[in-house]
# Entry
Amino acid sequence: MSTQATAVAHPNIALVKYWGKRDLALNLPATSSLSVTLDQFLTRTTVTWGVDQDEVVLDGAQAQGAVAQRVLDFLDLVASDRPPCRVISGSNFPVAAGLASSSSAFAALALAASAAAGRALEPAALSVLARRGSGSACRSLWGGFVHWTRGERSDGLDSHGHPIQIPEPWGLRVVVAVVHAGPKAVGSTQGMVRTRATSPVFPVFVAENEGLVLQAKQAVLARDFDALVGCMERSTTLMHASMLTAVPSVRYLKPGSLAVLDAVDDLRARGVACGWTMDAGPNVKVLCRAADAAEVERSLNGLVRAVNVLGLGGPARLVEAP
Ligand code: PMV
# Structure
């Protein structure tokens, strides 16, 4: 007998960054982080538990090799004695949208797979499970602002997301400036391992980042936009400084990325409240208030390949349960 469940999840963007693992196998982070979950873009995943043979279909094509194996290994975490399973997953945002999809992908997979397997998990346990697939996925279980605590335990059970409850929604936008849409040159795990092992700046990032997470959380609770942007840009700068000073250097930014940073700094000098962040790739995400999003979009339009304006999204959810 087979059982089936379908879940959807949105990608998230870190305002205060996760970079570096204290445990590679468990995806335990060197530092806490803080994110916003995005709206509009989502991954939808159906897991059928108990079929003739394992099958993984991603964005309409049969997944092969290491890509399929990563998904199947993840199902083994849900139940080591599992039957063959089918996973059909698709995202409504193209690679060219300038966002990584692993956060929404593993959040949706954790939710759908555990439900299909008949293992209802509490949100924190689901977040721990999603983290094993991709660190940032542990933050996509919740909407709005999410705090991923580093945790102290060696089994990682205290390293998961926590929603930051605010009395009413904060009308912010994330404007994604797509500088380059190709696959990244260095995968995030490889980049993290190299940075942690060789960069003299990495300990500086780790030492400061934990405090930045707490300051950013206070800024969210106090709706202090400028303080939040200050934490975001500082964490981003220290993360990229640690990447750049790794041996060999891990360099994700392109000249076009720096042009966007200059344009955002110019906007700010003209009185538009906004700030930038970048992840393991050349695209720049600009945080601003809803009322300023059109002006930010206009300023960046001619400068980059595409601009996507996104709001803050909701939690991952089951849309079909056994
Ligand atoms: O979840 P991963 O392994 O793809 O790592 C994501 C790392 C960054 O996006 C660069 C930062 C973050 O906190 O999301």
